[in-house]
Amino acid sequence: MDTHPESSSLRTFAVVAVTIAAAMIALLLWWNAAAVNSFPIQDRFRSDTHNQPDPFRVPGCIGGGADPCAQRVLLPAHAGFLLAPIHRYVAPARGHAPNEARTGPGTGPQLGFPQGRHVRLAIDTDVQRRAQLTADCYTGQEDACRQCNWCNTAGAQDMYGGARAERVEVLVANAASSGLLATASAHSACFAARHGGVSATNTCPALPFANTRRPNADLGNQALATSARPGSITKIPISMALTGAGLSERERAELPDILTHSLTEPMIDLVMCRAQDFDPDCAMRRLRAVADMAQAIGWVDQMDVIGGTQLPGLSATRFAGRLMRRPGGSLLTAPAVRMDRAEMRACSRNAWRNCRGAQFVDLVAELFGTGDALLSPVGAASALLHLASAANGRTEQAPLHLVTAAQQDDGRWRRLASNVKPAVTLSEAKLVIAGLERVATHGTAASACRNAAKATGRSRLPCAPGKAQDQLQLAMKSGTPVMSAESGRNLSLTLSQWRAQCERFRSALLTTPRNSPRWHVLANNAGKCNMPAVKWVALMLREPGSPTWDKVVIVVAERNWNRRTQLIDTPNDRGPNVAAEIGMALVNGMYPLAEQLR
Which residue among 495, 514, 530 closes a domain? Predict the structure, then answer.
């Protein structure tokens, strides 16, 4: 019998330790042998194991500043399409471990571990936090509202779910570098229930389209993925195109006021050359200029939002925008389009509605920001970055991007280059901005600006009273795509009236000969019942006295319904644009007055 149990324990521990050590050595030998000699099927296609994953190395760091390991940055929540390629890039591999991570007591011996490649992000942690709080609060999350002193929650109690908006996406970019500073996304409880397949209850609006179970598509971070009809946001590239399309002095003088007050019909008159008595050649020349501008700013499908196509191994494409093109990519301004002077005159007299000719109607719909036109926050940001770069006097800019620099296999940094030429000149940008600068004070976002300013009492927003030297300068454009519960300029349907109208369209569609003229009208109206009721804002800002524009902010928000009135939020634009209010509330939070910081 062993009279020393501690000796037995020691012997047992030693056996276990030796066994573990042997197993580790065997595992290492197996790994090296496997990496070099195994995987015979793979070896038929590649002769080295340079990029094989290595579990005994440390991933590179994802951060900002000079040292990404010291200034780590978290990627936005739910942005899996961003996380995957970046984490793959920094993952340790046998062939590229340009760094060394050290661990152990600060004063004692330290162990070194080979470490993968580092990347630097443009994300600003404070801006990201404020953007997410703002989106959360405006979608009815009470905890966020308690922290968001720059958010205006007045009126939220009258809305379904206590939310000013059903969903909100926010994108913030650095106007100088084109880096993505923040991408935030949030949705209301009713939105989550609807897209989780839950039936409507008394606390959520009963909409005329079926509930859909699409959590992966709709409930994650949508700031870089959502898309919607742009509405009047199209006036940004249209006006950018017109400034270089040979406007007369009188037409140039009209353009800023058209932008400030979002005058759609006069804008289409400009494009279609009303001052030239609707000369067909002039109209087609300007329409092609708009199509060329859409291409120049990236509104031609996909855009790489990670490395701007400049960083091998780091890319993720997202839809940017589509304007003056069909979904397949063909131009709407093809030579076969017939531009008839008499028809343009008649259509202009009817406020560009009920025009004739399918191709011509499609062109007019694009100018309204409907038809085949489609936009994401990525595309809206790209348009303003071109405008800001030109206004800032830059001859080249970087593409919109998340990763500013990445290490290569040998440890050297590859930085994103400024290799994109602004789509407009300095003088052209100034003409467009002259109209956008008055939107917050005298235009379509004036009531939204006043609402945003109320949250903090005193504010640096341009609509708030105060010293001129304290006020921020904003250049912005709001947008409201077609929403079928709103008819004309003054009529808005209640929820029950809207549901009944949509049901009539669908029922009539079933008994109408397919592809007849009436069938197409009914199909179009029924399709509008499925379109989300969204609002847009695209703005850029600078501090007073600054010679350059500093940031670009894009917001798209799905409007909520009022429980008391049973009407959509701000029916027929009677009231503040909720997306514009959210954007300016965030600006208010990012640039508080000095006394609000104490």
Answer: 530
pLDDT in tens, 213-264: 554 445 567 888 899 999 999 999 999 999 999 999 999 999 999 999 999 9
Question: Distance (Å, rounded) from C-alpha 371 to C-alpha 229?
Answer: 8
Q: What is the model's pTM? A: 0.88
Distances (CA, A) of 571 to 80, 206, 429: 36, 17, 33
- 494: its two tokens: 């209640």
Q: Given the structure tokens 């600060």, which residue do they identify?
A: 106
Contact 544, 472 (CB under 8 A): yes
**Residues 347 and 459 both lie in one domain:** no
Strand segments (E) across 507-568: 534-542, 551-559
Residue numbers of the domain that contains 526 = 484-530
Give the pair of three-digit tokens for residue 545.
């006295």
Please tell me whether residues 470 and 585 are part of one structural domain. yes
* DSSP secondary structure, 167-219, as one string: EEEEEEEETTT-BEEEEEEEE-HHHHHHHBTPPP-TTS---SS---B-HHHHS
339 and 419, same domain (yes or no): yes
Read off the DSSP letter of residue 404: E
363 and 454 together in one domain: no
Answer yes or no: are the C-beta atoms of 530 and 482 closer than 8 Å: no
Q: How many domains does the chain have?
A: 3
Task: Render pLDDT for 403-443 as a digit per residue (tens, 0 to 9).
Answer: 999 999 999 999 999 999 999 999 999 999 999 999 999 99
With 0-12 / 13-18 / 19 or more C-beta atoms within 10 angstroms meaning exposed / middle / buried, residue 353 is exposed
Do 291 and 430 belong together in one domain?
yes
Both 333 and 239 in one domain: the answer is: yes
3-state SS, one letter per residue, for 323-390: CCECCCCCECCCCCCCCCHHHHHHHHHCCCCCCCCHHHHHHHHHHCCCCCCEECHHHHHHHHHHHHHH
Q: Do 393 and 467 lie in a common domain?
A: no
